[in-house]
Amino acid sequence: SNGTLIYRITKAGVYRVRAEATADRSKFSECVVTIGEPLRELHIQMGTDEETIVDQTIQVSEADGSFTVSAVLVPEDAYQQDVMWSVEDNGVLSITRQTEGSVDTAGNVVRPKATIRINTSGSATLTCRSIDNSEVSTSVNVVVKPKAGEQTTKATSVTVTDLNGNSSVEVPYNDNTQGVTIRAVVTDGFGNTITRGSITWES
Prior knowledge:
Layout: E1 13-20, E2 28-35, E3 41-46, E4 53-54, E5 57-61, E6 66-74, E7 83-87, E8 93-99, E9 102-103, E10 109-110, E11 113-118, E12 122-130, E13 137-145, E14 157-162, E15 182-187
């Protein structure tokens, strides 16, 4: 050999490579080559309880002020531990701090984390994506409920009924017909009735 080794990777693992002098094999040197597993999946976890992995929706309160999430990597000891957190730019959430993940020599895993500041009530999409492979990512919908006693002004549904809750009203017409009373209830995305603002009626 001319002193150069081309190492063909066949699978992940820890390998010891040894080079010896041809003239005197007692003269040698070794190095350890670690081939890490590639990152295949990402999941988002709330808090420190492993059972709180979420893949669809996180619900928090505006009163919380902030919350912390961590990335669960599959495999857990994947060679590339770095991820990037992002939220859609709608003003509901913002990322204030991100910490990198790591695996120490004893195999202990420190998961990547992010601290998310709650700016207002509403909903936003939180995404965690691998820096090494952008195709490995996961997203969840974060729903921020208003503080107790407050309500959002963003209407998501309007229900129109008569005073008995009927959405279809039949009233016979005659000289004594005085009219019919109907009402509209406007709610936000959390099921709260919105009392502020106005309703425009059309017929």
